[in-house]
Amino acid sequence: MWDWFLLFLQIMLINIVLSGDNAVVIALASKNLPIEQRKKAIWWGAFGAIALRLILTVIAVYILTVPYIQAAGSILLIWIAIKLLIDDDGHANVKEATTLGKAVWTIIVADFVMSLDNVLAIAAKAENDLTVIILGIGLSVPIIVWGSTLVMNLLTKYPILVFLGAGILGYTAGEMFVKDETVSHLILGNTPHWIVPVVCTIVVIGAGLLKKMAGGPKPKHS
């Protein structure tokens, strides 16, 4: 039970850390609507985004069981984790919508484009446990939507949360690589497999610390 709860918390943290900009998308897309329509756009846009993200994550869970796909996904996930810490790009350029339908559509499409990293990370971490996937996504997305200001402030005020999220992603990437038995056996041979997740975590955190020491922008969500 404790292992399941820990996994749930990790998925929540990954989703919140990786979804910071999604809150900005929702705010921008519905900014020009009347207050009543703005609320509806947020509700329906968030509902559509949650449903789409759940479907994509379940599909990703099964795709990741294919040999070589999981190893390739692990490399992509390491890149996502490093990008989370060193990326200095601004928020996505989102067009402000003038009607309820356009706002809802903008939110869903933008969330789809921006959530591919979340989908991969959560599918890799959840280990085929659909219950924890549904709960992790279902609960964290409303937190992002309705608590977007709080989430953004927390990530800015406590950069350690971003580092922690990136570290979990790095470790998950290492676990993904090891689970792809075809590739890991070929490359690792008799090397103890526990070393890979540890090294991946160190690489990700190290990249973030180097960026910070180099005087670059503070780590922020992608």
Polypeptide structure, described:
InterPro entries: Integral_membrane_TerC, Integral_membrane_YjbE. It comes from Paenibacillus radicis (ex Xue et al. 2023). Belongs to the TerC family. Pfam families: TerC. With 222 residues, the chain is mostly helical. It is built from eleven helices and no strands. Helix 1 (2-18) runs antiparallel to helix 6 (116-126) and helix 3 crosses helix 6 (116-126). The radius of gyration is 18 Å and the shape is globular.
The shape is globular
- SSE string, helices as H and strands as E: HHHHHHHHHHH
What is the makeup of the main sheet?
A: none
**N-to-C span:** 32 Å
| Radius of gyration, taken over Cα atoms and rounded to an integer in Å | 18 Å
Average pLDDT confidence is 76
Find the count of extended strands (DSSP E, 2+ residues). 0
- The proportion of residues in beta strands is under 5%
Proportion of helical residues: over 70%
Low-confidence segments, given as residue ranges, are none
Helix count, DSSP H or I runs of 4 or more residues: 11
Structural class: mainly alpha
What is this structure's SSE topology?
Elements lengths: L1 H17 L1 H10 L5 H29 L5 H18 L13 H15 L1 H11 L3 H17 L1 H10 L1 H21 L1 H8 L6 H19 L9
Helix pairs in contact: 1-6, 1-7, 1-9, 2-5, 3-5, 3-6, 3-7, 4-6, 4-9, 4-11, 8-9, 9-11
Keywords: Membrane, Transmembrane, Transmembrane helix
Main location: membrane
InterPro entries: Integral_membrane_TerC, Integral_membrane_YjbE
